[in-house]
Amino acid sequence: MKLQQLIYLIAIADNNLSITKAAEKLFTSQPGISKQLRLLESELETKIFIRNGKQLVGVSELGEEIINRARKVLHEINHIKNISNLANESESGNFSIATTQTQAQYALPKVFANFHKRYPQLTIDLQQGTSEQILSQLQKQEVDFAIASGNIELGANIVKIPCFQWDRTVLFPQDHPLGDLRKITLEDLAKYPIVTYPSMGPAEKSSLKDAFNKVKLEPNIVFTARDADVIKTYVRNGFGIGIVASMAFSPKQDRDLLGYSTKDILPRCTTWLAFNKNMFLKKYMKDFINDFAPHISKEQLSRYLHQDYTSSLQLANSIEKNEDDASLPMHQMWHI
Amino acid sequence: MKLQQLIYLIAIADNNLSITKAAEKLFTSQPGISKQLRLLESELETKIFIRNGKQLVGVSELGEEIINRARKVLHEINHIKNISNLANESESGNFSIATTQTQAQYALPKVFANFHKRYPQLTIDLQQGTSEQILSQLQKQEVDFAIASGNIELGANIVKIPCFQWDRTVLFPQDHPLGDLRKITLEDLAKYPIVTYPSMGPAEKSSLKDAFNKVKLEPNIVFTARDADVIKTYVRNGFGIGIVASMAFSPKQDRDLLGYSTKDILPRCTTWLAFNKNMFLKKYMKDFINDFAPHISKEQLSRYLHQDYTSSLQLANSIEKNEDDASLPMHQMWHI
DNA sequence: TGGGCTTACGTGTTACGTAACGATC
DNA sequence: GATCGTTACGTAACACGTAAGCCCA
């Protein structure tokens, strides 16, 4: 017995016992329904309908009973479908995101402003941590989304969507010798002690160190902090020059500091959003992704979600090689 | 959504969330269940089970709801299946059979003796009539079964099962000149007036007349009756010689008559059982067929029932040509 | 003769089994 | 390293659409 057969059965019963009309209503062929009805009757070893020749002219006693039960079945089936749709479209609950201080402080507020207006019932739980901690929370399914930067390896069960790019900015006090230079090189930076983000554990390779090493230089990192504002404080106090995400530096607010973009001497960083492959995206989650990474079309998102084995490999490779990133938008500056 | 998927779902839920065990219980492959579960979850856009890596370790909130609904669905489905099975296995009700006097009187009593013991609750409604009347009742679905003999054409919507064969017997009073003969020929019979069954209307050709005509003789049929006992009475009263079904003549009970089998000079007759193609056989009907025509195996019966177009043609042809009849058993003599 | 159901047939889809792979304890 | 789930792939079954056939009003 197939659900489709029950759908056909009810359609016939609801259309004056006309197979032709039932077929029209269901946008399918009349012989198809005819055949499935006969298969159903044959499986049940019962004539559900009374026939006059080939024409259906009535419902048998058993047929009534069967039709009633079939209605119940379809009703339950629809309910099952609705359960998940409603859940997927729910606008309340808890939406948890693990992210880094920089993203939480400088990239997310603008996004959440819109998002919260759309979903006022939704409690947003923003968890801060290192990339390691974020990854761990994601793997334990303690959070729905993770947002971070860096080349950390996430594993096969996690979907990783590149969202935007950003450059670093070198910060130093107004009276620092670097302020006299038109153009700053890696050699210049290597001369001074550096305060920046920590290279975040064994799973991640530091693209900053890499860039220095490539030209046979060794950066003198004297202090690291996860919080861009902490880094700025240490720079102000003369510990060294700071290297932070460009969006964490605002010439207007940080008037006592000078900032030089490193876009010509250091590689760009990519901020990505990740979640467990085996989690279904509720509507608000999709909306959030759209707010946070508007360049990702529905089709692209769907490709990330339903990637089969081969395309998954391709995607992983292209992400690995940052092939996608060339087309990624730069982060738009925005301050509260 | 497929019913099969719901069955798999429940099996997983009922087997400690083990896909492997569910597969064993259902005698199917483990990858098959795994895949269908993922298809179901994907269609519903919901994770029914909570996973630890690939292992299922729990049921999600929505999953509980879905599983409960799925149980209801399968329960209703089983009920639908039971409805018809119960009906098919019902042992009470009305079982109507239209037949001829000869069958009712001489062939059926033995069968009904057993059958009635098995189905004491079943009211058997035996209707007597001419072949024409029997056919008409069958076509109007006034009776479940028809049992008769003769070459009557039944039409495409009726299933006709050959049951057994019988010969005719020539009857005459003890002092009749035929009693002096060792062997009786058609020529001998043609010399005397004959009392026999009527040739039953335009739809049927009389095999008796045919046999005479083939050797350029014309039988002198002076009297016809549907009832073998009536025929015997007329024979006793000198209206002529009788030709009746062999099973209607009992040397012990009809001591005043002599009977000669015509098996060498007249063709055998076949008694068949017929019913509408669009009627499903209840269990007691199948049992009746088995009692009445024990040589028909379940497989053969099923072939008669589910014959497709080609085999239907073949069957019709083989019945038409009496190809089957060579293997049909002769009627076993039996008197009350 | 037209409307309605069935039969016939080709085709694209899919369920499922086997085998290989992968992860997890 | 054993157990359990997933991926891959071939095959057989099946649903469904088109077209033709059949029957009844």
TrEMBL record, chains A, B:
<dbReference type="InterPro" id="IPR005119">
    <property type="entry name" value="LysR_subst-bd"/>
</dbReference>
<keyword id="KW-0238">DNA-binding</keyword>
<dbReference type="InterPro" id="IPR036390">
    <property type="entry name" value="WH_DNA-bd_sf"/>
</dbReference>
<comment type="similarity">
    <text>Belongs to the LysR transcriptional regulatory family.</text>
</comment>
<keyword id="KW-0805">Transcription regulation</keyword>
<protein>
    <submittedName>
        <fullName>HTH-type transcriptional regulator CysB</fullName>
    </submittedName>
</protein>
<dbReference type="InterPro" id="IPR037423">
    <property type="entry name" value="CysB_PBP2"/>
</dbReference>
<keyword id="KW-0804">Transcription</keyword>
<feature type="domain" description="HTH lysR-type">
    <location>
        <begin position="1"/>
        <end position="59"/>
    </location>
</feature>
<dbReference type="Pfam" id="PF00126">
    <property type="entry name" value="HTH_1"/>
</dbReference>
<dbReference type="InterPro" id="IPR000847">
    <property type="entry name" value="LysR_HTH_N"/>
</dbReference>
<dbReference type="InterPro" id="IPR036388">
    <property type="entry name" value="WH-like_DNA-bd_sf"/>
</dbReference>
<dbReference type="Pfam" id="PF03466">
    <property type="entry name" value="LysR_substrate"/>
</dbReference>
